[in-house]
Amino acid sequence: MIELDDEQQAARAWFESLRDRICAAFEAVEAEAGSDARFVYTPWDRADPDGSPGGGGVRGVMNGRIFEKVGVNVSTVGGTFEPEFARSIHGADQDPHFFATGISLVAHMANPHVPAVHMNTRFLATTKRWFGGGADLNPPIPYAEDTADFHAAMQAACDPQVAGDYPRFKAWADDYFYIPHRGVHRGVGGIFYDHLEGDFDAGFAFTKAVGEAFLDVFPRLVRRRMHMQWTEADKARQLEWRGRYAEFNLVYDRGTAFGLKTGGNVDAILMSLPPEATWR
Asked: In this predicted structure, what is the pLDDT of residue 260?
């Protein structure tokens, strides 16, 4: 068990409480569809390369009628980065010791009309301390109404907050969630932010606002589309789109690289991959 200071403990407690409420909300959607699907939680522990305790986390996964595969992970880890990897991490180039806690969520939906989604927020400490994360919508079949509502929710999370900067964070997401070798974005965007440092309270308040906005908007989008009829052509479009999503997560995603480089739980790290995909 790693020792936490007050800021680290507060961040971890928030991410765990957000996980519990998101999972309950997703299970409620399944119940409305006549499904008894529930999250299955698997705890895991991490050892630092020197053998000392490195923290761990809990991987929650549900396979349901509406949520074909959804994973909600919370991890709290600490230790030392490998020297080469430390040079790529904010504040770790001089001292490789780190702490990280956060929530990571990816939902792949059974109905092609229901958008997939990603949300991740985190708090890291090296020689610097900062919050980062974001949320983005990934519909195989985009609907302008859904895109507008999702972006409105993210802007509403940003605008009242000292640390919020919706135009900048939206542009950052557009740049980040892009697949260069395909020349396409992986979805319709959202917000992405990183290195919010210098004011713990402001960064924490904004990060909590992002989590609350996601919890409010995404279940509404699911309920809007989950009873729509779909065709074999719609499903084929979804499976091909999922292939693009997998390519991004395996080739470009920073969170995937961070988890693998720091000895995280492989199943938790790769839970973002879709249950089925095609490459034509």
From this structure: 83
pTM of the predicted model over 0.85: yes
SS3 139: coil
> Distances in Å between the alpha carbon of 177 and those of 85, 132, 202, 218, 239?
22, 15, 25, 19, 19
| Closest by CA position to 89, among listed 129, 29, 148 | 129
23 token code pair: 């999972």
Choose the catalytic residue: 113, 118, 151, 185.
Answer: 118
Q: Where are the alpha helices (DSSP H) in the chain?
A: 6-32, 83-86, 144-158, 166-176, 200-225, 232-251, 254-261, 266-269
**CB-CB contact of 99 with 124 (8 Å):** yes
Structural contact between residues 182 and 103, judged by C-beta atoms closer than 8 angstroms: no
Predicted local confidence at residue 261, as pLDDT: 80
Residue pair 135/118 in contact (Cβ under 8 Å)? The answer is: yes
Q: Give which of 85, 21, 78 is closest to 53, Cα–Cα.
A: 78
Look up 118 and say whether it is catalytic: yes
Report whether 22 contacts 212 (CB < 8 A): no
Residues 6+ apart with CB under 8 A from 88: none
Q: Return the pLDDT at 193.
A: 97
Give the strand pairing for 40-47 and 53-62: antiparallel
Mean pLDDT by 10 residues, the chain (280 residues): 89 97 98 98 82 82 98 92 82 88 97 98 95 97 98 98 97 96 96 96 98 98 98 97 94 86 80 93
Q: For residue 128, what are the CA distances in angstroms to 94, 135, 200?
A: 11, 24, 11
CA distances, 156 to each of 161, 166, 189, 199 (Å): 9, 9, 15, 21
